[in-house]
TrEMBL record:
<feature type="active site">
    <location>
        <position position="197"/>
    </location>
</feature>
<feature type="binding site">
    <location>
        <position position="134"/>
    </location>
    <ligand>
        <name>Mg(2+)</name>
    </ligand>
</feature>
<dbReference type="InterPro" id="IPR037515">
    <property type="entry name" value="Rib-P_diPkinase_bac"/>
</dbReference>
<dbReference type="InterPro" id="IPR029057">
    <property type="entry name" value="PRTase-like"/>
</dbReference>
<keyword id="KW-0963">Cytoplasm</keyword>
<feature type="binding site">
    <location>
        <position position="222"/>
    </location>
    <ligand>
        <name>D-ribose 5-phosphate</name>
    </ligand>
</feature>
<dbReference type="GO" id="GO:0016301">
    <property type="term" value="F:kinase activity"/>
</dbReference>
<comment type="similarity">
    <text>Belongs to the ribose-phosphate pyrophosphokinase family. Class I subfamily.</text>
</comment>
<keyword id="KW-0067">ATP-binding</keyword>
<dbReference type="GO" id="GO:0006164">
    <property type="term" value="P:purine nucleotide biosynthetic process"/>
</dbReference>
<keyword id="KW-0545">Nucleotide biosynthesis</keyword>
<dbReference type="InterPro" id="IPR029099">
    <property type="entry name" value="Pribosyltran_N"/>
</dbReference>
<dbReference type="GO" id="GO:0004749">
    <property type="term" value="F:ribose phosphate diphosphokinase activity"/>
</dbReference>
<comment type="function">
    <text>Involved in the biosynthesis of the central metabolite phospho-alpha-D-ribosyl-1-pyrophosphate (PRPP) via the transfer of pyrophosphoryl group from ATP to 1-hydroxyl of ribose-5-phosphate (Rib-5-P).</text>
</comment>
<keyword id="KW-0547">Nucleotide-binding</keyword>
<keyword id="KW-0479">Metal-binding</keyword>
<protein>
    <recommendedName>
        <fullName>Ribose-phosphate pyrophosphokinase</fullName>
        <ecNumber>2.7.6.1</ecNumber>
    </recommendedName>
</protein>
Length: 320
């Protein structure tokens, strides 16, 4: 980067230190010293080992497994920074946990995504920087600035560099993912298709494909992979419908439960994810490809620090 970022105070908590280090390297700064200690009863103690008085501080922490522990670390850190007279407290949240709890679907149900937003604001956060929220409307849950970054241009660039933008169909694994699939299809100048799954959590005889996939490569595109069942099922349906090679792509690799076995034993030729959530070695498998989102966050942090517009991050030509 051409800009002088040496005044940035960048902190990493425990959820994703590898991504934090990559962001620091891209910015050309050192991670600031902090000590995070967990007592035997689960309580968290944080000591900031450098002065932050009047500084623009950026804290990197995904709200990922263990979700509640990582969220509480972030809350304690925000409080520590506020009490240490930090100038601004910017929360960089690559994966925003609880994002799927964004509305009431049953009586007496909480809207936990809004509760998380309230907690962050009340603790003293001045800004949130995040990536590929489950629903973009979550930005409206905050009364502070939210920079909602996108991984789609980096994902599209991966497919272009590997020749997967020719004779390809972008596939939504269900109807709720159609908008995402259309956005990637526009980047690749490709048609879209939809896996029309009805009345079942898994594929069955009532599952159809809307669109022409026979004889084409397919990219199944979603914002996250949790249990892996939806992605694996969609791949099976596409192969049955005559697709050639099938690829799965998502931003957030949650990989809970039996996800790894679901994916590595599926019809997917490759599973492309990003490093918003740190991937343990035991969850890696042969078909897995991990793209780093560090350059996206590093550029956003630099622009915010210099009081410049982040608009260039939403311009495909600037970002890939």
């Amino acid at each position: 980067m051409n800009q002088d970022n040496t005044g940035i105070k960048l902190f990493a908590l425990n959820s994703n230190p590898k991504l934090a280090q990559k962001i620091a390297d891209d910015l050309g700064v050192e991670l600031s010293d902090t000590t995070v200690h967990h007592f035997s009863d689960g309580e968290i103690q944080i000591n900031i080992d450098t002065s932050v008085r009047g500084c623009d501080v950026f804290v990197i922490q995904s709200i990922s497994d263990p979700v509640n522990e990582n969220f509480m670390e972030l809350m304690v850190m925000i409080d520590a920074l506020r009490r240490a007279s930090a100038g601004t407290i910017n929360c960089v949240i690559p994966y925003y946990g609880y994002a799927r709890a964004d509305r009431k679907t049953r009586p007496r149900e909480p809207i936990t995504a809004k509760l998380i937003a309230n907690f962050l604001t009340m603790a003293g956060a001045d800004r949130v920087v995040t990536l590929d929220l489950h629903a973009g409307q979550l930005q409206g849950f905050f009364n502070i600035p939210v920079d909602h970054l996108l991984a789609i241009y980096s994902q599209a660039d991966y497919f272009k560099k590997n020749g997967l933008d020719k004779d390809v169909v972008v596939v939504a694994p269900d109807h709720s993912s159609v908008k995402l699939a259309r956005n990637l299809a526009e980047c690749l100048k490709a048609p879209i298709a939809i896996v029309d799954k009805r009345d079942s959590k898994r594929v069955d005889k009532n599952t159809d494909v809307i669109g022409d996939v026979k004889g084409h490569q397919c990219i199944i595109f979603d914002d996250m992979i949790d249990t892996g069942a939806k992605m694996a099922d969609a791949a099976a349906v596409l192969k049955q419908a005559g697709a050639t090679d099938v690829y799965g792509c998502a931003t957030h690799a949650i990989f809970s439960g039996n996800a790894v076995n679901e994916l590595k034993n599926s019809a997917l030729k490759e599973v492309i994810v990003t490093d918003t959530i740190q991937m343990p070695e035991e969850k890696k498998f042969e078909q897995l490809r991990i793209l780093s989102v560090a350059p996206i966050f590093a550029k956003a942090i630099s622009l915010i620090y210099h009081n410049q517009s982040v608009d260039s991050l939403f311009n495909k030509n600037d970002n890939i």
